[in-house]
Give the backbone structure.
Amino acid sequence: MRGLCCFFLLILTQVSFSTVKVVGFFGDNVTLPCSYDTQIHGTLDFCWGRGKLPLSKCSNTILSEQGGMLFRQFSRYQLLGGVKKGNVSLTILNAQWDDAGKYSCRIEIPGWLNDQKFNIDLVIEEAPMQQPVTQETREILTSMSERIPTTMEKILRLEDIGRMAAIFLVTTIIILAYIFRRGCMLRGTLQHPNISTDENIYESIPIPE
């Protein structure tokens, strides 16, 4: 009977895990989530390990806090979320390829089968390519930004010159057309009186019978 109870306890401890998949980039910082409510439980002991959790504590412990004493396997393992507030998420600095794999977090809550347990599957991927901004590129961008206003000023000056030239040309054409029209009108006026005089002379001469 006792063996059967242990068997069921083992099943319960294995199925009560919460599993999360986390994807990180090579060379970046990666955070594995794990937290509890300090307002209910107060400050508790916890541990982080590689692989699955055993019946108690953590296997292959990489970071833990027991009775206020902190153990850390490597300096790349950090707690940056605020431990006193119950955030014991593990941050791996400068993630490497061999950091990929299974992690486990245990929050030790007093009592039977009360521990909070988290399993995390960490996947490391290649970081997306980003074009580095070199000093030469910065100088080119600065030079282009300085040239744009100068180029715009030149364009505006050319537009002003073209506009003035067009106005001058249209004005000249209008003046020439006016002069030409006036000349034609004067020429017509001078020719019309001569014709009228000749006609009057011919009318005044008597025709012999």
About this structure: The first strand starts at residue 18 and ends at 25. Helices lie at 2-15, 38-41, 135-204. The two ends are 171 Å apart (CA to CA).
